Amino acid sequence: MKPHRQGTPSLPVARRVSSALLLAGFSTLAILGPCHAHAAESWHFSFGAARDGYTTVDAGMAYDAKRGFGFEPGAEVRTAGYLVATKPSYFTADVPEGNYNVTVKLGAAGTASNTTIKSELRRLMLENVSTASGATETRTFTVNVRTPRIKAVPGVAAGVVDLKVPRETVSEARAWDQRLTLEINGSNPVIQSIDIVPVTAPTIFLLGDSTVSDQPGEPFNSWGQMLPRFFKPGIAVANLAQSGETYRDSLSRRRLDKVLSMMRPGDTVLMQFGHNDQKQIKDNKGGPFTTYKDEIRQHVEAIRKHGGIPVIISSMERRRFDDAGKPQETLTDYATAARQSAKELGTAFIDLHAMSLPLYAALGVEGSKLAFAEPQPGKLDNTHHNPYGSYELAQAVATGLRQAGVPAAQWIADGYGNFDPSHPDPVAKFAVPVSPTFTNERPLGDEGNR
């Protein structure tokens, strides 16, 4: 059966690049290749069984650019009227830049199921959805897909985001290509169908550093990757944060411009920088109460000019304890400057710095280790979180949105938005399946504060 899709082929878009291209000295523009002939605005996939109006997908269908969809290399799946993944696997479909409602029908006759789905670069969308044998459940979530191209809008020139090569063009390419990639995970994931349909939906844009950005591999994770899980379908999270960056980098590498070019009136922009901004003091290039506050102001003014709602977030603390077992503060000046900026500019503020301290205190000196990444045995990263730690911080951010009265809070999923950091979820009950990708390469930035 021919692919069932709607819409017309898109304009030139981003695609993944190989290491060979990078070694050959290609610039960021090298990832802006010819259009995908089969990029579609809508896709309707049925796994292993023909259904009217659906494209039938069999287990052996590897991703093919000409076809526009398929399983990524390494997938282990079988189809028998439905899809079963015998290990975490990826399924990809080409789509133009934009927001999409993804609807999945889970479960099947003759088998119980447990399915977790992450999108693009490990963004948690569905967590451990279980069905009994013979039962089905239909779930919808909203995903943002983007490319590096910046379209011209008033006040923003056309161009391209200055991606970090090779990080964002190889290990993080899924965050920027014209493809919607789903990680199918869980103890027994079973999927009958997937519908991918474009939607005009409000968007929460994220700008920040490595503690916010989509990290490509375990054990590293960020609250930005976990945040989509805590929102209902109908609102998208677009994470443009990047490791090692500052408010200054957001301006110079044109990440803010990319946000402004995509943003619709009423959209929300969450901004959390601070860890790497400390280097500006060391390099005698500014500080928290001078350049940092001025760069915050530039972001707020630009977002408001384009009809967006800016939200300033103070950086969570690093893992530091004194001899009495009390969390120490290393980012106080930047948290204070962020708070002052929010007050002076009349902007919503989430004090993640203040919320992180009771969180770490509740976990304790030893227990808090289980919230941070350990890329090598016995080598703990005291700045970057693992999935558990970022899951807790994402709940703090969602709660902060509600407390600040940000309109996007109306989309917070039922049962969330009232997180008490002094009473975190028990580590033993955390069960989000790990992704198949692993790295012991530390995220960029904050090198002096391991």
Automatic annotation (TrEMBL):
| Pfam families per the UniProt record, alphabetical | Lipase_GDSL_2
What the entry lists under InterPro entries is as follows:
Galactose-bd-like_sf (IPR008979), RhgT-like (IPR037459), SGNH_hydro (IPR013830), SGNH_hydro_sf (IPR036514)
Q: Which residues form the signal peptide?
A: 1-39
Give the UniProt keywords, A-Z: Hydrolase, Signal
The record's section on SUPFAM superfamilies has: Galactose-binding domain-like, SGNH hydrolase
Domain SGNH hydrolase-type esterase as annotated: residue spans: 206-355
| Keyword Hydrolase annotated | yes
Similarity field = Belongs to the 'GDSL' lipolytic enzyme family.
Q: List the protein's name.
A: Rhamnogalacturonan acetylesterase
